[in-house]
Write a structure and sequence with these properties.
Blueprint lengths: L21 H20 L3 H14 L3 E2 L11 E6 L3 E6 L9 E7 L4 E12 L2 E9 L12 E8 L5 E6 L19 H4 L3 H4 L6 E5 L11 H14 L9 E7 L4 E3 L5 E4 L2 H15 L7 E7 L16 H13 L5 H9 L2 E4 L3 E2 L21 E4 L3 E2 L10 H14 L3 E3 L9 E2 L3 H5 L4 E6 L1 E2 L7 E4 H16 L1
Helix pairs in contact: 1-11, 2-6, 6-11, 7-8, 9-11
Amino acid sequence: MTKEKKNDNSYQAKNAWTEMGKAEREEVFAFNKDYAEFLTKNKTEREFASAAISELEAAGFKNITEYDKLKKGDKVYVENRSRALMAAVIGEKDLKEGLKIVGSHIDSPRLDLKPNPLYEDGEMAMFKTHYYGGVKKYQWVTMPLALHGVVVKDDGSQIEVKIGEKEDDPIFFISDVLPHLGKKQMKKSMDEGISGEQLNVVVGSIPVDDEDAKDKIKTAILNHLEAEYDFKEEDFISADLQVVPAFKTRDAGFDRALLAGYGHDDRVCSYTALEAILDVKDPDYTSILLLMDREEVGSMGSTGMQSHFFEDQVANLVDLYYENYSELIVRKVMQNSKVLSADVSAAYDPDFAEVYAKHNSAYLGKGIVISKYTGARGKAGASEASAEFMGEIRGIFNNAGVIWQTAELGKIDEGGGGTIAQFLANYNMDVVDCGPAVLSMHSPYEVVSKADVYHSYLAYNVFLEN
């Protein structure tokens, strides 16, 4: 009987673990250990941006305001309102030949405190919240929560807040009705079981020792805040306080191949992109790291991708690079640039197989995901990469040994989502979405494969270098 010849023309995504030797596996685990520690420490945009700037400065990057002229090899960064930033390594080629950009976002779904959050009811003091981004509200109840952020007083001074992360810190929580009395709740849809107005955080229950106080427990909390943090109730109005999971990022599974943590979307891309540009040596094209805010709510606002921040900073580079600035040069730089929109994809989940297009899904452990388009239903709300650019990216990754796969978000009519790619594409750039797959995306505890995290770093680095 003749043995059937293997068809070498077929395509099948590789499992990254089977392609690794012992030394590379050790590298993968070491890289993810650092990532896990970074993610645990930096759960807000402000924290991520601040930590990123510290790493950039340690690697020789300087604030762009320190330069009168830019030349090959210069490393610069600029931040925007402590919530977004851009970093650049000036390359060999003239700026007019274009930039190599890896752009991601550092905001994640969470609960924000309302402007007037503190109230008392049922012998408890509570914070009212407003959820941010696409959350399943029921996932945020009866779990340990932490409070992160900054309070800005009317004299401009700032108070940093981070409560609930240390072992001896108190945590906060949102209650849920007990099953014995939950008959009506259990008949509701999952979307209605917990409403946005029920996401109220319990923050205290000891009343102040003052018979004349109207709300004794609320008053006690205000006294505590003034004594411990030196801010009053009115200061909440100019505060940027977020309620986030109080979990650490931890290994998952017997083999520790997975990493569970809050904020993988999209800080897994932001971190790997940061590490990628830190390791860029002598790039042909000027390499750009772009870390943006507010993607989870449409990229609006002064720190979002729809602002003029990115365009302004490219103009700033042009002004410092050329003797004579012109708007035409800025436009040439833009239209000749190429971008990896670094955002995550949905990992195939066998327990919910009905929403995935199995042959066009991303799988944990099969490397970084290249998504030709995102959007919803009829590709609405997204750009689409050209065949030429897809071929170029495949070539770069294949030549460098990057393990990659390609995928859509899910079945066509099940829903969809977008990234910052569409806004970068408006500048007439070549753009493609590219990031690791995430299980339980937008939940308080998302999961990624360590192999995919590492190959995302490799992918971004080799793209920026070439």
